[in-house]
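Title: Comparing notes on inverse folding

I've been comparing how different people in this forum approach sequence design from structure. To keep things fair, I'm posting one structure and asking everyone to reply with a full sequence. Here's the target:
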């Protein structure tokens, strides 16, 4: 039976985590969402549609689901946004917020209510928290990829950029790059093409060497 844990990883920011041992054995895989608790609560990663009941129950340990104001994710993929319309149905004031390109290419059509398009660098003031939207096209993958940076706590919400195998702790003091490279060597999920943004911070130099 799957269980979902909720851990506060920074002041008012919670990791919602569900381990799925059947995915990528033997270590298994863990799907995470992040709840930014503020006057306008924000969810980063909507999760799979089928996991919505589990994740919604976990959110209620912090705030009522209907309080959610913003539904966000790194890129268009089932584990990132599969349940976005379930959240829109459960939270009547919620909007999906994503980069302009992602809205134009996919989300204007996919969302049950119109999404809020964000310019590169645009900030949403949540009331007590501030999230800055940064376009990162094709990093880690997807034309519409982006990250969110919560400015009051210095928390980067970056989706698949640091994928790890297994069911790791919410907070670590150890290396996060090494396990991400291990996961990349298994999944080959990152975009490694000449057109990727060369200036993107965080793009590992090892991938540049390997792509030659
Ligand atoms: Fe994903
Ligand atoms: Fe992804």
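Reply #1:
Here's my take.
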């Amino acid at each position: 039976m799957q269980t979902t844990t909720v851990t506060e990883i920074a002041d008012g920011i919670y990791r919602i985590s569900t381990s799925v041992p059947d995915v990528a054995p033997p270590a298994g895989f863990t799907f995470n969402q992040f709840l930014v608790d503020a006057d306008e609560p924000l969810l980063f990663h909507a999760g799979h549609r089928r996991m919505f009941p589990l994740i919604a129950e976990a959110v209620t340990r912090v705030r009522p689901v209907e309080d959610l104001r913003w539904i966000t994710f790194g890129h268009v993929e089932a584990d990132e946004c599969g349940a976005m319309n379930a959240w829109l149905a459960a939270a009547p004031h919620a909007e999906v917020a994503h980069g302009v390109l992602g809205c134009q290419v996919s989300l204007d059509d996919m969302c049950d209510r119109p999404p809020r398009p964000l310019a590169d660098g645009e900030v949403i003031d949540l009331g007590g928290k501030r999230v800055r939207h940064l376009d990162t096209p094709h990093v880690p993958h997807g034309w519409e990829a982006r990250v969110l940076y919560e400015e009051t706590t210095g928390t980067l919400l970056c989706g698949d950029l640091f994928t790890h195998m297994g069911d790791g702790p919410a907070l670590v003091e150890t290396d996060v790059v090494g396990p991400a490279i291990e996961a990349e060597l298994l999944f080959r999920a990152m975009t490694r093409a000449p057109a990727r943004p060369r200036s993107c911070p965080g793009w590992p130099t090892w991938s540049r060497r390997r792509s030659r």
